[in-house]
Amino acid sequence: MHYPRHEFPIKEMDFVRAGEASLQVKKILREMKAENDLVRRATIACYEAEINAVVYGRDGVMSLEVDDEGIYIYVEDKGDGIPDIEQAMMEGFSTATEEIREMGFGAGMGLPNIMKNADEFTISSAVGEGTRLKIIFRSGWTTEEA
Amino acid sequence: MTLADVVQRLELKVLSGSELLEREVTGGYTGDLLSDVMANADTGQVWITLQAHINIVAVGVLRELTGIILIKDRTPDEATLTKAKQENVPILQSDRPAFEISGLLFNLLNE
Ligand SMILES: Nc1ncnc2c1ncn2[C@@H]1O[C@H](COP(=O)(O)OP(=O)(O)OP(=O)(O)O)[C@@H](O)[C@H]1O
Ligand SMILES: [Mg+2]
After folding, report:
1. According to the model, what pLDDT value does residue A2 have?
2. Bridge partner list, A64
3. What pLDDT was estimated at residue A144?
4. What gap in Å lies between CA B71 and CA B1, rounded to an integer?
5. What is the pLDDT, as a whole number, of residue A146?
6. Residue A90 in contact with residue A107, Cβ under 8 Å?
7. Which residues on chain A are in Cβ contact (under 8 Å) with B54?
8. CA distance B20 to B65
9. What is the separation of C-alpha A41 from the centre of its chain, rounded to a whole number of angstroms?
10. CB spacing of A104 vs B33 below 8 angstroms
11. Cβ contacts of residue B16 below 8 Å, gap of 6+?
């Protein structure tokens, strides 16, 4: 069984569109009849990754790949990168500006929530180059063919 | 309980989604941090918040919330209301603070 790959662009500081990429992923998962809890977990993770790309990433791309074993979501951006990933992963850590915090972002919960919801999560980043997230979901995933 | 009942009993103003008020309300969640709401609100709930910017619509759609109640007369801009209409997210408004709206809704849902 071959599954197509999907790509969705993410725009820097565009809060009108922020969430669109996640919504597209969600729609595809629903069309594939993924179970509700899996869709919920993937949606939370996608939204957090997308908002981070909007706020810190200076544009990005979310891509979705699927096979019989699982769902693979990649979010890449060309932002400033993360100097200390361990610190960034800590609940409550945030470098959000005052303006961004006033919008209700910057609780330092995004990355920890991706971690909690994904079955596998890896993040790599280079300062001055950008950040790449790989978010995998396997549990609860069954395809109609499988 | 439908959204229409909630609107009537809590004396809410309907800013968008007046044609969606037959939707069922299963509960509520109160919060102003978007990550918190994303992680902890549930499908079918109404979200009580002071955030009135355009991205609340994305949270409403993605989290499949029944509607959003803006507290203390927080008013969204036109672009937010337009998007809310497009995406079928009812936006409601009250002059009361979050504590009061949450308490009133809690009691209403437990009647
Ligand atoms: N794509 C990214 N590029 C650069 N820095 C990032 C990126 N994603 C996260 N960070 C850094 O990691 C910190 C923690 O991210 P996390 O998503 O956990 O919290 P937050 O975005 O600050 O707040 P919240 O997600 O709760 O709104 C951010 O404040 C930022 O400093
Ligand atoms: Mg974040």
Report:
1. 72
2. A6, A73
3. 61
4. 21
5. 45
6. no
7. 15-16
8. 12
9. 11
10. yes
11. B81, B84, B85, B89, B90, B91
pLDDT digits (tens, 9 = 90+) for B41-67: 999 999 999 999 999 999 999 999 999
Indicate the length of chain A as a whole number: 146
Tell whether ligand 1 has an atom less than 6 A from the beta carbon of residue B110: no
Strand partners of residue B37:
none
The structure tokens listed for B4 are: 């229409």
Nearest to B59, CA basis, from A131, A50, A76: A50
pTM for this model (two decimals)? 0.97
H or E stretch including B49? strand B45-49
Q: Residue A97 is which amino acid?
A: T
Look up residue B73 and give its two tokens. Answer: 């007369």
Q: What is the mean pLDDT of residues B103-107?
A: 98
ipTM of the complex: 0.96
CATH number for B3-109: choose from 1.10.630.10, 3.30.70.20, 3.40.1390.20, 3.30.450.180.
3.40.1390.20
Supply φ then ψ for residue A144, to 5 degrees. Answer: -60, -30
Interchain proximity B38–A19, CB inside 8 Å: no
Considering just the CA atoms, what is the radius of gyration of chain B in Å? 12
Cβ contacts of B53 on chain A, cutoff 8 Å: 15, 103
